[in-house]
Amino acid sequence: MSYQGKTIVVVGATGQVAQPIATKLAEHNTVIGAARFKDAAKRAALEAAGVRCVEIDLASGDLSQLPRESDVVLNFAVAKSNDWILDMDAAVGGTSALMEQVQGTGAVLHCSSTAVYKPMGHHVFAEDGPLGDNHGVWEFLRTYSTAKIAAEAAARYGSRRYNLPTTIARLSVPYGNGGGWPAIHLEMLRNGSAIPVHVDAPSVYHPIHDDDIFAMIPGLVAAASIGATTINWGGKDPVSVEEWVGYLAELCGRELTFAPTTQTIDSVMVDLTKLHTLVGPTTVDWREGMAAMVAARRPEMLKG
Description:
The chain has 304 residues and is α/β, with parallel strands linked by helices. It has helices at 18-25, 40-48, 84-101, 144-161, 181-191, 210-222, 241-252, 273-278, 286-297, and strands spanning 7-11, 30-35, 52-55, 72-75, 107-113, 124-125, 166-171, 173-176, 179-180, 195-198, 204-205, 207-209, 229-233, 239-240, 258-261, 269-270. 35% of the residues lie in helices and 20% in strands. The protein starts with 6 loop residues before the first strand and ends in a 7-residue tail after the last helix.
C-alpha cells in the first residue's frame, strides 16, 4: 500500500528519517515539508524533489504556514539541542501547537522513539512498559528521552482535544543510505576506533531500514485513533550492536575492537506483536540492508 494523490505534511523534513520519506512521497503526492531549514542544501534537495518547503519553529509555536487541513501529517520533528527549556518547549508546546494548527487533517503519525523506555537490561518492552531516561547517559543527548516522553503526552492530549486520529510510533534504530547509528559505527570502523557497547552484553535493538520505514507509514496511519494508538516500530529481528558491527567489519575486512562501558545506552528490545498485527512485519533483511548502506555510503570500504 502506498499513497497517491494525497496532500501530506512532513514535519521535521530535513531529518535523517524524514527527508527520504518526503522525497519519495513527493513522486505521487503533494508534499509540504516543514522545518527550520538552517541547512540551505537540504532545502534545495527537497525542493528539487518536488517538496514544497515551509519554515516553522516548534519551540516558538510559529506554525502559521502549515495548512489546517490535509490528508496526513507525519511528525518526525526532534528536539535535541541539549537545552532543557528549549527542548521541552519544542516537545510539549510545539507538539500541542502542531495538533491545534492541523486539527482539520485526516490523521497524524507522531514518530516517537524506543528511547522512552526505562533502562532495564534485557527486558522486552510492550507498549505499556515503564518509561524512563534511556538516553541521559549520553551527555550529547541528555534531553532526548525526556523530550520524547513529553511529546507523546502532548500528542495524546491534542488527539483528544481536537478529535484528531493519531498514531504514536516508537521507532527503534533507523538506518539506511542516509545514515543512522550503524552508519556511525561504519565510520568508527573506518577510523579504527573501538566501538562502545554496554557492559550488560549483548546490546540488542531492532534496526529498521529506510525502505521498511517508508513502506509501513500507510499502515501506521490507518491504525490511528482518538487518544492515540501507540505502537512499537522496529525491524522484525532483534539484532545486537555486537552482531551488526561484526557484520560490517566482515564486509569491510576491518579489525574490530569493542569497548564495554556503562556510559552508553542499554539494550531496548521491544514486543512487536501489535505492529505485526496492525501493520505487518518488516521485509528488509538486516544484513542486506547493512550491506546496501555500506555500498551507498562507503563503497571503497567493501572487501574485494
